[in-house]
Amino acid sequence: MAQILAPSTQWQMRISKSSPNATPITSNMWSSLLWKQNKKVSPTSSAKFRVLAIKSDNSTINRLEGLLNLDITPFTDKIIAEYIWIGGTGIDVRSKSRTISKPVEDPSELPKWNYDGSSTGQAPGDDSEVILYPQAIFKDPFRGGNNILVICDSYTPQGEPIPTNKRHRAAEIFSNPKVQAEVPWYGIEQEYTLLQTNVKWPLGWPVGGYPGPQGPYYCSAGADKSFGRDISDAHYKACLYAGINISGTNGEVMPGQWEYQVGPSVGIEAGDHIWASRYILERITEQAGVVLSLDPKPIEGDWNGAGCHTNYSTKSMREDGGFEVIKKAILNLSLRHKDHISAYGEGNERRLTGKHETASINTFSWGVANRGCSIRVGRDTEKNGKGKSSTIMARPLYSGSR
């Protein structure tokens, strides 16, 4: 099982294995490094003892953790804001840090910023400046304190949304009074795969080989069935700390694969929360030395893919007679199936095959409690004639959801 790698809370002395003369550091050797002060010796500092740090090519002392965990709030009002945006592929997240003079509570209090769009595939080199507009704020689980994560979208210097800025149009739709009156709820189920760093093979799989067939791994426990639980749990807590409306998590059908759910959220908030959660997951897997993959079908063959299923409902669907409203919405979706498929992201033709609990990418279908349909309606919705949600196979909220 992968573990989150963090520096020890104590200083560490590491001896290179390649050195033939290296010997373990014993307690006696450490005590010889501590020079206790006594009354006969004039103190050179207010400390009770001094540590003599050995410097050599074969040893290092790790002091990073103390600095990374440094609480700066007693010493300054300044905070660190991590500006986050979606890159040119529509699925990659980028970020950079900025010092802000004091804590903020609303994105409108933050300044706009810029980045080099030619380095993210979003602008030509001869006119590369792209402007970041802060849109949503979350607490920073990595830096703590008053530091924040800031979800941004991207514009030209003239104030026009760049082509990959899908959030701008989504925000326009959600701000429409008719849409607001329907109070659209979203619940997003993000599946992902954890890969070993050097070989890009799923976590827990033998290198170049395969585990046993699918079956024992879904929602499982045990070292031979569950791989990466610490990453999933770390992500869960980090999202709750950040203020993301994460509602659950579970191990998925393919070993090394996990899922978490964000929502129910209203309107554009759902998109901001899912993108912030993806960024946090990228940072946690970075620290763990594991590669995060949102690829729809990371392993070919008799293995489940990874989707981003979206549960959706409106006020009319949740009221009496709502099942008829749901069926009308399903009909409207069926008439634009190809348009929607083109917006779901690249690679879904490898996942939506009609096998492994998916519908065929070429055929629209719906059913009650049928996991092999494009849209699945819950049993309770059918029974009650209304419902809180219906599940769409891969509906993106804004930009390139998988």
TrEMBL record:
Assigned EC number: 6.3.1.2
InterPro entries, per the entry: Gln_synt_N (IPR008147), Gln_synt_N_sf (IPR036651), Gln_synth/guanido_kin_cat_dom (IPR014746), Gln_synth_cat_dom (IPR008146), Gln_synth_gly_rich_site (IPR027303), Gln_synth_N_conserv_site (IPR027302), Glutamine_Synthetase (IPR050292)
Family the UniProt entry places it in: Belongs to the glutamine synthetase family.
Subcellular location: Plastid, Chloroplast
Protein name: Glutamine synthetase
Pfam families in the cross-refs: Gln-synt_C (PF00120), Gln-synt_N (PF03951)
Main localization category: plastid
Origin species: Glycine soja
Ranges where the GS beta-grasp domain occurs: 79-159
Gene3D superfamilies: Glutamine synthetase, N-terminal domain (3.10.20.70), Glutamine synthetase/guanido kinase, catalytic domain (3.30.590.10)
PROSITE patterns the UniProt entry points to: GLNA_1 (PS00180), GLNA_ATP (PS00181), GS_BETA_GRASP (PS51986), GS_CATALYTIC (PS51987)
Catalysed reactions, as listed in the record: L-glutamate + NH4(+) + ATP = L-glutamine + ADP + phosphate + H(+)
